[in-house]
Amino acid sequence: MISKDEIRHLGWLSRLELTDSELDRYAIQIDEIISYFDKLDNVSLTGSDPACSIKKVSELRNDNIHVFEGDPLEFSKNRKDGFVKGPRMV
Amino acid sequence: MPNHLYRLTADQVASGIKNRDFSAQEYISQILERIEKIDVKINAFVAVDKKGAAEKARSIDKRIHDGEHIGGLAGVALGIKDNICTKGLKTTCASKMLEGYVPPYDATVIKKLKENDAIIVGKLNLDEFAMGSTTEYSKYGPTRNPWNINYVAGGSSGGSAASVAALECAMSLGSDTGGSVRCPASFCSVVGLKPTYGCVSRSGLISYSNSLEQIGPIGKTVSDVVMLMNAIAGTDENDQTTRATAMETIPNTMSLDRIPKYSLNQNNRNIRVGLVKELVEGADPAVSKCIYSAVDLFSRSDCKCEDTSMKSIEYALASYYTIAMAEASSNLARYDNIRYGFDSNPEEYEWNTYFAKVRNNFGEEVKRRIIIGSYVLSAGYYGKYYLKAQKAREMIKQEVKSLFEKYDVLIAPTMPILPFKFGEKIDDPLKMYQIDIDTVVANLAGIPAISIPVGFSDCLPVGLQIMANEMEEQTLFDVASSFESIVDIHKSPEI
Amino acid sequence: MEVKIGLEIHCQLTGLQSKLFCSCQCDYRGKAPNTNICPICSGLPGTLPLLNQRAVDFASMISLALGCKVPDKVMFYRKNYFYPDLPKNFQITQYNAYGITSIGVEGRVDYGIKSTKIRRVQLEEDPGRLIYDTSFYTLIDYNRAGVSLVEIVTEPDFAEPKDVRMFLNKITSIIEHLGVGDTKLDGSVRCDVNVSLEGGKRVEIKNVGSFRDVEKALGYEITRQKTMSVRDIEIKSETRHWDEARKVTKQSRAKEEEEDYRYFPEPDIPTIVLGNEFLSSLKAKMPELPDERKIRFLRGYELSDHVAQVLIDNKELADFFESTVKIYSSSPNEIANWIVSDLLGFIDDSKREEGSLFSGLRIEAKHMAELVKMIDQNIINRNIAKMILGQITKTGEMPSYVLDKMNASIIDSKATISEAIESIFKSEKSAVRDAKQNPNAANFLLGKVMQLTGGRADPKIALNLIKTKLAIME
Questions:
Q1: CB B138 within 8 Å of CB B25
Q2: Cβ pair B131, B167 in contact under 8 A
Q3: What is the ipTM of this complex?
Q4: Are residues C364 and C421 in the same domain?
Q5: Which residues does chain C have within 8 Å of residue B214's beta carbon, measured at their own beta carbons?
Q6: CATH code given to domain A1-41
Q7: B200: contact with C, CB 8 A cutoff
């Protein structure tokens, strides 16, 4: 059983400020889903690890400079003297 | 000037414009009119770029008039799923977290479409961040099935499939992580392909689950899908997970007619077809009936078709969702409303509080997946879930590989059920996940899979799914177009 | 009391042109905020990391130079946590909590007579920078985000700060000789230092900003812990940070709970196959390492261990030495000594931070070569040579030119020297009396003669003449 507290903790880990009613609702739904995942218990952990893509060093990006034209953060709404403005640290 | 230009297939449009049977402007204005008229009923588009489309059409016509060279898709109207970055055009993933976001760069596939002179008419609706199977999780409201607007269009690329079915554009691009191109293609009775993993660049595709997803073409016919694939497929230096296709390609240069990498030849020299029985037997009788009739027709045309089994299917859904949600929880971490997002002043908030507050604006389904994703990656559960899911994935890959030693293609229903009414599954996430059972295998194994219309039941579409070995898109196209010509469904919904 | 020290060094690969995962310039210093960025390193949606080939080369070279084993395949992982300087709110790194996947493991570095074991070497990306502007908001600059870092982790093998200093000198030398980075550049290295006393709880001092500060921080922290221990105060396992201004370690804000980083393989970066061919071609083109070079200096030039070590510890000096010897090869030992004793004295320590030891100095190898040649040919003595050296570093003039201007050639004419001695004997009558009693006091008179002749008298001849004169006096 996945508890409301565990959900709240996971929410925190993921920076989600969940409301109480969300916590109630999600606890039940997520518990059901995770229980479905328990099917995987029967899968053995032996065997090699799959790799979706493999490359040689020579196939990687060359160490050249390319300047991006324009400002990637042009449309950011919170700027000050070129910096990006964020919330306070303490 | 012929009416109903919007009814034409992509290759008919391309050759019609090239041969000056009609102009690009004529065509595009009909398309835009069509969208204006019927999209209120369908809700496939989240944004329409009337100005841009008209300008592009104008410039194409001028170049034709001046005898200049034009690209292979010149004038063809394309819709783009709103999780693919289009420079200068809002790209929102149907989420508040990207409200008003305008990318400063084009996805590689968009660059390629522009090189081919395709006309992007607008952005298409999706489940928020591509997480869903019905497009009911969109901030813009659901997309309706053109065949019956009380029914879901499928998802997450609901807008992409519905717009093509409703003749609002000739072709579209969607993305497929666990069936998100094939599912709506099946529900809307159009053709949709999920390419081999690594076949099409993901640069500019806003990530949901990066080891599973691919951008995929949707069209009315297999031929159209081939045309679109030829434009977008290929390695990309901006995506290190792309790999070279088996076919001969020419170097990527601007506006040259592309020699089709894929072609349509229908010599089906003894294709060996395997029907995955777990998937057919697990489907609704209405669906399996259609599948069996299609198979029957096909078998009569000199093709060996036999039942086969895929035992590792039983782990497919658990493996898929574990991996997808794990990757999603990380891919979506960047949405902290600092550099992009919705309007909100971070001043005076402490940063942890600010992050948690703004991020609660994700939709419910997205939040659920982020939480579960964090869970299966967390220290105590990594081995039990994530690692096992990867092992199960490897098992499925191996089994698929061995099946392709016996068969050239595997077939199954695309969806285990017919399209259903809005709201039917929305309160039960697990029930919703289970409709992906037929499609997730191809994503897990990284193999190509296509859905083609194969019949109707109670006026609701049924799709047949054909899968081939990795990088064997050509085989897929060969078989799919054979099926297509045999099954011979040529109709559009009345809207 | 037994002390155990371990290090975690983060070193920027400033030898690269571009960043680790994008083509933005690696050198961000002095740029206006957010002008050295692109969609990838600023974490825009839809972007994918593009691994820099040369970064893999550099990291492999560092691994080899530190005696590590390099695996056949390397992978990257995601370390997931939220922080405003992290554009993606995860860091792409090679560290994996579930197994070793770094580009180098189980190495060993000798420094002096001791050695330390290297636990791992890995590649990862640097985050952006935060400026705590006011109590209302923070300002963020992503110019540095995505710069390549190599993390070097040692076993807790060090027993005293002095050892750590020697080790860090060695690391600096290795990195300079490989040409992959420059540890003297501002912000190019950061160290986390772990200290514990006699098997007690471990304290971690994070983000010490330069190698030079590491020894200071260690000194302070060990004293702090020893003091507490003597007073029977419990030393808690904690994280501290080094306050550079006040030169103390301070307690960091306690974290609410241990962060769970949820490591998993980075799906956007393929597994990279290294292979024997790659490694052997890398070994073949690797620059000469400090240890090899030192051996060559000892054997080939017959330098003393101490002198050779000083040269090796500063690649620039070693390079200067070899350039000089190339021009004038007869007295490598003399040249080396001049560099290590005299020239080093002219190098302003504060300039060390600016990158080149020689910044502000106008001396080149050709000057040093001619100077030593002139000494060997007895044209000048060492005192004069020192004065000329000072002049060269300021003006860049050749020694022979300076000498002409100074008219400082050695006076070896007995007649001239005798004159000077006469003069001194007249003015230093009491000293002369002392010298008659005590032969050693003759040195005082010699000093006066040297002064009078502007340092030009040949001291051997002068002393002999003085002694002779003393002997024949009543």
A1: no
A2: no
A3: 0.96
A4: no
A5: none
A6: 1.10.20
A7: no
